Amino acid sequence: MMEWINERMSLVRKACDEVKKSIDGISLALCFPLEFKTAVLAYELSKICELNVCKFDEPTTKKEAVEWLENKGVEIKKMEDCLNAEYYLDCVATLTYLANKKDRTVKGVIELTKSGVERLANLNNYKKAISIDDSLIKGLGENRFGTGWGLIDSLIRLNIFLPGKRVFVIGYGRVGEGCCHALRDCGCIVYVYDRDDIRRAIAEYNGFKVLEIEDGLGKADIIVTATGVNSVINSENVHHIKNGAILCNMGAGKYEIDCREFKDYRIKNLGCISKYEGRNHFYLLANGNPANLSVGFGTPVEIMDKTFSLSLFALEYIINNDFRGVIDTPEEVERKLVKLLRL
């Protein structure tokens, strides 16, 4: 699989050539989910700069990707050993937060997620940061059009028949919207909840019926969280879940489905999915970790090739430009990627 992915990520190699003069010799730490596409990005960067790579977490790490990098001489380090880098390619502000606790300051941060950008607002140890999630190409392209197919990938691995299944998606941001459309394309009957009235209206415009959480939990065969907020499913509403329903998380928060609160349930491990038995019974995919990365292969390679190339151009921008705080991805950065697509 690694060689297949490596061959198909031509944009990352082109982008590395474009930004080589700017990033040559810098000290860079990378903390993205360490799967196949990330491994290609890390390998190409290791040829140019002083690269420090760590795992984002164990559930989203692919063993084959780690072995491939190590065979190419790229060491996988502990997070603590990556903090002295000048610049971070970060996810959910993981490295930035840890560096802040240890009173270390970083010159610049490229943040991949909305949750990470929100977290950065409470930190003061970075001089400047760029939110990749606020770009059209990543934020709209990957989240809206790519992430949902990672959900389909993970569900198909359960060997279930999706057409006709009733699916309740909690959270109708870009990730949730993308999941809804991908599920409907597979023949599912999709219901939606969002706490924001405007997002609820947009869901209805797109033809999805909006339900309150308790109603959706009781109706759905499959329940998907995509909010970035912990404890969306908790001890107060878990008893509303339909018997036999499959629960999976597609958000950045590990405990959107807060299994820590399911203390009245017996747990039976069935591999990548666990059965919870108590007042009702249901199944939890990947222990509530992001299903697309923990069970499936994540967002399609063609899309991540663009996202990671965009991150490289953002890194070039943050090195060469003076500003303070967190900014959205500059338009010129996105246009560099568009230009690269035409070559």
Description:
With 343 residues, the protein is of the alpha/beta class. It has two domains: 2-138 and 298-342, Rossmann fold (3-Layer(aba) Sandwich), CATH 3.40.50.1480; 158-294, Rossmann fold (3-Layer(aba) Sandwich), CATH 3.40.50. Helices cover 41% and strands 19% of the residues. It is built from 13 helices and 15 strands. The chain has helices at residues 2-8, 10-23, 36-46, 63-71, 94-101, 114-120, 136-156, 174-185, 197-205, 213-219, 291-294, 301-320, 331-342, and strands spanning 27-30, 50-54, 76-77, 87-90, 106-111, 126-131, 166-170, 189-193, 209-210, 222-225, 245-249, 266-269, 273-277, 281-285, 325-328. The strands form two sheets. An eight-stranded mixed β-sheet has the order 9-8-7-10-11-14-13-12, sandwiched between helices. α3 (36-46) packs parallel to α4 and α7 (136-156) packs across α8 (174-185). The protein starts with a helix and ends with a helix. 48% of the residues are buried. The model has no long low-confidence stretch (mean pLDDT 95).
